[in-house]
Amino acid sequence: MPNRFIFSLRFSTKVFLKLVMLALAMILFMTLFRMNLYFLSVFHATAEVAFTEVLQSFVAGIRFDILIFGFLFIPLYFLLLIQAVSERWPRGMFVFYKTYFTVVWFLICAMSFVDFFYFARFGRRMRFEEYMSWSPQVFLEQAQALQPNQTWIFLVITVLLFSLGYMLIKSLKFGEWKDEYSPQRGTNVETVLRLVLPLLLIVLAARGTVEPHHLALEHSEVSSNKAINEMALNAVWCFDK
Known about the structure:
Elements: H1 4-42, H2 51-86, H3 91-122, H4 128-132, H5 136-144, H6 148-170, H7 188-207, H8 226-231, H9 235-238
């Protein structure tokens, strides 16, 4: 009979894949944030920029968004590994995973919202220094410098995308690990793949590239236009810069 560990390990892979699918949906939503930033703030000032450069900026942006989730998945990988090895899958941990992503998604949405008004005024993303000097008064001044429709459109988009993300999180169902029971014996190859492959994917995502140097600011420089380059970044990545 196969031992219980392989069942637990298979279930950990199942949970991991569900969380990955959730992360991919959030990356899509972050791309929609970037698209709204482009049409509401960048487009009118970059009409002369070639479409290929705009497209390259969006592609680079996806890489920066994936990088964020690569780092976010590092603690999740080890938590899932501990659960797989211990063969313990309490419902409280599933609540934790949902809460983790809810907090993460709220912060991403909040930072993207605040960053939009700074970007619209200065043509660049906020950095750590700007976040530390941020205040509601500064925010109001930046918002008042925009057309009212710009503010309302981005506010509605932010609320909508946060709500969609929250609904996806809430709808997550992980099942029971004992459902993975099967007469099929696990092999050493299967065990190694289930342990190592997720970690390799996370490391690759967190690095953002297979090149010797990890993803950095220069990877966003796809155009001679600074706003197009800055658009490729995201508020979370810029927070500690």
